Amino acid sequence: MQSTPWTNTLRQPFRDRALQSNLGIPVLMDRAHDQENRVAIFEGDYTKQSEPWNYSHRAIEGLRHDWVIEQLELTGLMPGQRVLELGCSLGLMTEKLQKTGAEIFAMDLSATAVAKARARVGNAVHFLVADASVLPFEDGLFERVLVCDGLFGWHLDEATQAKVASEVLRVLKPGGTALFTDYIHHHAFYKVRNFVRDAGFKISGESFLGDRLWYQFASAFKAIESWKIVQKILSNRKIAIVLQKLARMVGAPGTRHIMVMGKK
Asked: Cα separation of 74 and 260, whole Å?
């Protein structure tokens, strides 16, 4: 790989690895830190199934991505600023992120997922395979970092969660903001708030997706979710929007996704 402006954002020895890679997507992993073998687990998910969590066929996921983008833009994101997306998966949200005009960096543990994401999005986004607990970037590089459905959703132990938060704080510019979202019961929302605060961030805001009714609605069709008519219903954006509006009327109890924004 030839030297490009974005490879200069990498720390050593990651920069050398990227330059020596013959792949279009640099793999910047330090397997010594993967004690729980998470790479093999996630890679297995993406190689065995074309879309492990079926996000593209669930209308609520499209609304979740829109919600993240909306909240990101409300933080005052400017065109040209750098945004890092941790856990980009198949690039469904990455595709929307690039439309913000920011310079997008997207990474995942799974090389298969990243390859599929780049095939979807194209080369305008800087894709790489890396571990969020050992980020390959220089200090103070990003204005925004997205940690979506990650700290609790990735089933990390407490030590690894702390490493991820420390790394996010390190690569943020002073005054930059990290947006943490997670799928969790509303009685446990305090865990996300406390985690962000204890990691050294100043909490600058929070937001609720309002998705609980949709998930309750979808669970009623669990036994027949493979039926085409059911798939059509669950992919219907208008139905999802109505359920979201109703759920948001009751605040935190009406949501399973919370976002906590932490400023450096």
From this structure: 13
- 254 CB-near residues (< 8 Å, 6+ apart): 208, 210, 212, 213, 246, 247, 248
Reported as a single tens digit per residue, the pLDDT across 17-31 is 776 555 578 888 766
Burial class (CB in 10 A: 0-12, 13-18, 19+), 178: buried
Bond from prior residue into 174 cis (ω within 30 degrees of 0): no
Total residue length of the chain: 264
CA distance 223 to 250: 29
Count CA within 13 A, CB hemisphere, residue 114: 26
Q: Which two tokens stand for residue 197?
A: 């605060």
Region of residue 221 (phi > 0: left; psi between -120 and 50: alpha; otherwise: beta)? alpha
Residue range 100-144, pLDDT digits in tens = 999 999 999 888 999 999 999 998 999 999 999 999 999 999 999
> Of the candidates 4, 209, 203, which has an alpha carbon nearest to the alpha carbon of residue 105?
4
Of the candidates 248, 228, 252, which has an alpha carbon nearest to the alpha carbon of residue 240?
248
Q: Is the dihedral of CA 100, 106, 108, 113 positive or negative?
A: positive
Q: CB-based contacts of 79: which residues, under 8 Å, 6+ apart?
A: 100, 101, 102
Q: Where are the domains of the chain?
A: 37-263
Which segments of the chain does DSSP mark as H helices, in order?
Answer: 14-20, 38-48, 59-74, 92-97, 111-121, 158-171, 189-198, 212-219, 228-234, 237-248
Residue type, 44: G
Calpha distance 53→47 (Å, rounded): 13
Q: Of 212, 206, 210, 200, whose CA–CA distance to 169 is shortest?
A: 200
Which CATH architecture best describes the domain 37-263?
A: 3-Layer(aba) Sandwich (3.40)
